[in-house]
Specification:
By secondary structure, the chain is mainly beta. It contains 2 helices and 40 strands. The termini are far apart.
Amino acid sequence: MRITDSKGREISFCDDYRNNVDPVIITTIPETGSYTLTIHDAIFRGREDFNYRIELGEIPYLEYAYPVVGKTGKKTKVNLVGVNLQQNSLIFKPSHEDRNELRAAGETNYISNPVTFFGVDKNFYLNTSPKEKAELTNGTTLFDSVRSPREIKTYPVYALKNENIVIEIMARRLGSMMDPKIKLKDAAGNILVEADDVEDAMQGLMTHHADPLIQFRAKTEGYYYAEVEDLTGNSGPDYFYMIERKENIPTFEVFVTPASLTLPKGGTGVFHLDLISKEKFIPELEFTVKGLPKGYTLSNLRSQAGSKSWDISVTAPEDAKEKQLSLEVIATAKLKGKDAGTISQTAVAADNMMQAFYYTHHIPAAGFVADLTEPAPFSLQLSAEMERHPDQSIMIQPSDSLVPIQLKIIRKEGFTEPVEIALNKKLRQLTIDPVSFLPGESEKTIYLKVNTASMKVQRKFRAPFCFVGTVKGEIEKVGKRTFQNAMYREYSPVFVLEIKQ
C-alpha cells in the first residue's frame, strides 16, 4: 500500500505492519491537495477472491496496549499507544477467560480497531509488574517485557524430583513484537531444554507461530532457571509477553469440521474431528454431543489413542422438525498414574482452509450448527445388529481378505434412480469394488477388500468409515475439463473397523 502526491512523489509506504501481513499507514499529510492510494498484491498476483477493505481518515488506531493481561471479571488499568485516541489509558474488565477484544474511543467518536486482551482465571496468581528474578510456581502467571537490547530475563523454578515442568510463553499471540526464546538451565548453568517456535493450532490465521513451550522432567529436587530473551535482540515497551507455569497433563485440542452440518429428516450426516496435542500424544477420547433432541442417534463416540482424526455420524428421526440446532461436542480423556481422573475439552467449530495449495489450517467459526432439511429421496442403513450397537467395532483378523457388511437402502416412493456406493475415504488397507443399488434392490452385502500385506505389518488399526451413496447428475464442461455433478449424496451411519495383532 502506497500514498503518492499529485506529482507522483511517495508520501508513505507499508507492506507488513508490525507482525501483521496487512499493511497500515499512519502518516501526516504535508499539504492540502490530491493524493493517490495504490494497492497491489505483494508479488503482483490477482484473482476474484483477492478481496480487501480499506478504512481511511482521521480514525482512531491502537498500535498496542500495556498490559494486555488481567483477571477475568476484575478491572485492570491499561495504557494505550496509538493515534487519534480520546485518552491514553482506560479501565478494562475482561468478561471471559482466554482472548478478549479491547477497543478505545477516538477523537471523532469512532471506535478503534481491536487488540487482544487475555483474561486469566480469577483464582490464579497474576503479577503484571514482576520484580527481577520473580519465581515461577505452579499456577503462576507473570506479564513482563524486554526493555533493553539483548536483555535476558531469568525466573527461578523450584521442582521436586521427577516433577514435570511445563512453561509456556504468549507474546505474538497477544500482539507483541517479541519473538521469544526460552531456555531451562540447572543450577550449574547447563542448558537442559530450549524452545523457540511452537505452532498453536487455535491461531489458524497466524503466519508466524513464534511463541515457545517447554516440557521437562526434573531429575533432582532443587532450583532450575528459565531464561527468556528476544531472538532478534530487540526490545521496547511493546516487546511484552506472558509466561506461565502449568502442570504437565496430557492437553489436547479438538476441532469439529465443517462448522455446519446438513442433516435430512430420516437421514444421516457425518462430521469430522481433528485431534491435536502440543505434547505429541493424543489419548483415547470419548465424545458427547450436546444439543440433540430425543430420537437422534450417534455412532462412533470413542477414538483410539494416537488418532489424529475421527468421524462421528448423526442420524435424525423421520419426524424431526426442520430447524437449526446449535450443537456442542465434548471430548473427554481418562488420565492414568498419579494424575488419574478425567480432562475434558470443548471442540472448536472451525472450517479447515487450505493455504497455497499445500497445508491446511483451522479458521474458528461462530459455532457448530446442524440444519434439518426435507427428507432425501433415499437413505442408507447398516444392519440391525450394527445399528443397535453403534460403538461396537467390527473386528478384522490379520488373515482376513474380505470383510462383509450388510447395507440397506430406503427409497422414498417414486425414486428409482441407481445409487452408486463407495467408502467415504481411501486407505491403502481397505478398498471396495464399484457397486450400485439398482432399481428394485433394497439390500446388499458390501465386501471390503483387505490389504493383508499392509495389515500384517500394522500392530493396531482402528478407524471409522461410512458408505456414501451418490446419484449422478448432469455433466459440466469447464475448458478442457469435464465434471459430473452429484444430484444426491447421502451417508450411512459411521462404523468402526479394528484389527489387533
